[in-house]
Amino acid sequence: MSLVKHRTTVAAVSVALCGILTLSACSSSSSPSSAGTQTTAAAATIGTGGTLDSVCKAGEAEGSLSFQDTTDPEIFAKEIAPFEAKYPGIKMNFGSLRPQDSVARIVSEKQAHHAIDVDATAIDMPSAAPLIQQGLVQPVDWTALGVSSDDVLTNQGVQFVRTQRIILGLGYNTTKLQASDLPDTWDELINSKWAGKIIVDPRGQYLSGLGIAWGKDKAVAWYKKFLSTDKPQVVKGATASVQEVTSGQVLLTTSSHDAEINEQKAKGAPVAIKYLDVVPTQDHYTLVVKGAAHPNAAACFLGWYASDEGAASQLKYEFKGNEEQPSNMPAGAKLAAVTNEADSTVQDDTATEFAKLSSS
Question: What is the mean pLDDT of the segment spanning 160-183?
Fold first, then answer.
C-alpha cells in the first residue's frame, strides 16, 4: 500500500485574477519599499473564493519565492522538478535551515523592522510558538487550494499544513528475527532477553512520544526499567542505529522510523519496522510567512507540495510519506503526535528526562 494517502480536491469557482488576490492583488512588486503595503494587505486570507491554479497565476506574477526546509538542496531540486515544470513563471530560491533557525531568522527580521525575505518555511510544531506569538503566519484558505482537511492543523487559531509524517517503531534485522518474535507493546519490550542487543538514542527524542501517550511520569518510570533490564547500546541517530542493525551487531533499534527503514531497504538492507501499541510521529508542517514579498507564490508551492503529486515526489526522493497512520499499525494502537503547545511541552520534558537517565 502506498504511503501517500488519497486526497480529495475541493472544487471551487474560478474568478478573475484581481478578484482572487487577497493581497496587493494587481501589484507584482517585491521591492523593500512595498513591504509595508504588503504586510498590511496580508491580513486578508489567500485563496478565498479561488483555486490553486488562480493563486498560482498570481504567484507567477510575483515571479519567485524563498522557501526554507531541512532537505538537502540537491534532493530538494529533484523533488520540485514537477512543480517547476507546471509553474515555470515561479523561480524557487531554497535555503536549507533547521526549523528553529528559520523561525529565529524570521522573528529577528520582524523585530528589527526589516523586510521579511522568507516567503514560506517548514517547521516542527515545537518550533512554531514564536511565529504564532508574533502573528507571523499568513492566513490561507488551504482547503480551497485542494489541501485535505486531514493535513491542516489549527493551533491557537493559526493554521499549518502538514506535508510529512515520519512514523516511529521498532527496527529489526530480518535475517535474525521475524515480526512475530518481537514484542507487541512497549511494556513487553522490557525483557532481559534483549539485553545488550538493542539500541537507544542518548538524546531521548525518538522515544519521547511515549510521554504524550502516557504522561511524562509513566514514560520516565518505563524508561528506567528499560535501561536497567534491556541494557541498551547507546548510538546517536537513526541512520547509525539502523546500520548497526543491518550489520547484525545488534538485533533491534528504538531509534528507527519508516523513512530511514524504507531508504535502507531500497538499498538492499535486511531491515524492517514493527509498530507497537504507541506509535510516535515526527510531523513536518509548512506555512506562508505573513508580510512576505511573494505570498501567492508561496501558497501556490505549498498547495502543490501537499498535493498527491508533491507528496509522491517527497516519498520518492526522501522516503518520507504523509499518511495519517501506517497501514500495518496494530488495531487499538495509539498515535502520539504533537498537535499543540501542551503536547510539545510534555514531549520536550520527557526527552530531557530520558537524556539525563541515558547519561547517568
Answer: 97
Mean per-residue pLDDT, 105-110: 94
Q: Are strands 64-69 and 252-257 parallel, antiparallel or unpaired?
A: unpaired
The identity of residue 28, as a single letter, is S
pLDDT at 69: 97
Residues 6+ apart with CB under 8 A from 347: 126, 208, 209, 211, 212, 338
Whether residue 280 contacts residue 206, with contact meaning beta carbons closer than 8 Å, is answered with yes
Question: Whole-angstrom Cα distance, residue 100 to residue 95?
Answer: 14
Task: Kindly give the interhelix angle for 216-230 and 341-359, rounded to the nearest 10 degrees.
Answer: 30
Contact (Cβ atoms closer than 8 angstroms) between residue 2 and residue 15: no
pLDDT in tens, 293-336: 999 999 999 999 999 999 999 999 999 999 999 989 999 999 99
On whether both 252 and 340 belong to a single domain, the answer is yes
DSSP sequence for 144-158: GGT--GGGEEEETTE
Considering the domain architecture, whether residues 154 and 125 belong to the same structural domain is answered as yes
pTM of the model: 0.83
What is the extent of the structural domain holding 200? 166-282+325-359
User: Residue 99 belongs to a domain with what CATH number?
Assistant: 3.40.190.10
Contact, 310 vs 217, CB < 8 A? no
Length of the chain: 360
Cell for 161? 499544513
CA atoms of 222 and 323, how far apart (whole Å):
29
Which tens digits make up the pLDDT trace of 51-88?
A: 999 999 999 999 999 999 999 999 999 999 999 999 99
State the DSSP code for 309. H
